[in-house]
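Protocol step 4 of 5: obtain the predicted structure for the target chain.
Materials: sequence only (see below). No template structures provided, no constraints applied. The aim of this step is simply to have a reference model before the mutagenesis design in step 5. Sequence pasted as it appears in the construct record:
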Amino acid sequence: MSAIDDLSFFQQVASRGSLTEVARQLGLSLPAVSKRLSQLEARLGVQLMQRTTRRLSLTPEGTQYLEGGRPILRQLEELESALNSRQPTLRGRLRINGTLGFGRRHLAPVVSEFARLHPELEISLELSSQPPSLLDDQFDLGVWMGEPPDSRLIGVRLLENPRILCAAPRYLEAMPEPTCVADLAQHNCIVLRQFGSDYAIWRFHKDGREYAHKVRGTLSSNDGEVAVGLALEGHGLILRSRWDTQEHLDSGRLRAVLTDHQAPRGDIFVVYPHRAHIPQRISLFVRYLSHALNQRLPFAAVRRD
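Step 4 output (structure tokens):
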């Protein structure tokens, strides 16, 4: 194996933290992966990983090898991408991360369409409840709610995504419609428990002022689809993204309330690390994704002035 192959292999071991996961990813047996790691350590003359029955952890030498090798692999990838930029056929790997609900409903179909156009491109789509780091080379890009949390990441806004306070008409027939944020104290609020944040505090703005209320209710969930379903059944108010409620608002199954107040937005971004040269498979997918999502969700299309 070349030094570059060893670097790439070790990056996978370090990012996944499990020889079993690496073996599954590479299509090798666990003993073969373990042997390759031992051979690499023998070649370098240092121990790179501490092994226990439960986990792997980097030694100081492993950390140095990982951090020093990362820019080398990135520069090689960018060089090869630049050399291949005129070729119409996309090859290599494209590793995408997305959120669960949006990923299932909208991102997965777009990935399917893109894969059909580029059959020689290996695409991996992983969905998670919380965005992972994009700085450890485990993913090439993420499709998330909200702007990038790190200045080392590029964020391209794909869709506008206000949050809407709404309920089923049958619930609003039994309860007085709220006219101010304080009225939420009288209502059964369906709470979406995500990311360990202050999910029970609903925030709004009106005329330059901020209003916040800690809501309560008899029902909660950690899944957006479940929470919307509970609202559709008439169990209470829900504060949910427009992309997830617009069809129900259009059909009349949900009705927006407190419409003169604005909840914090959760616009949808595609996010990827800064690089000297963006690989063609990433730039073309971002362009395709932006167009496809604007076609699927025209009410959320970003206005490009």
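Step 4 remarks: The longest helix spans residues 60-83. The longest strand covers residues 92-99.
Proceed to step 5.
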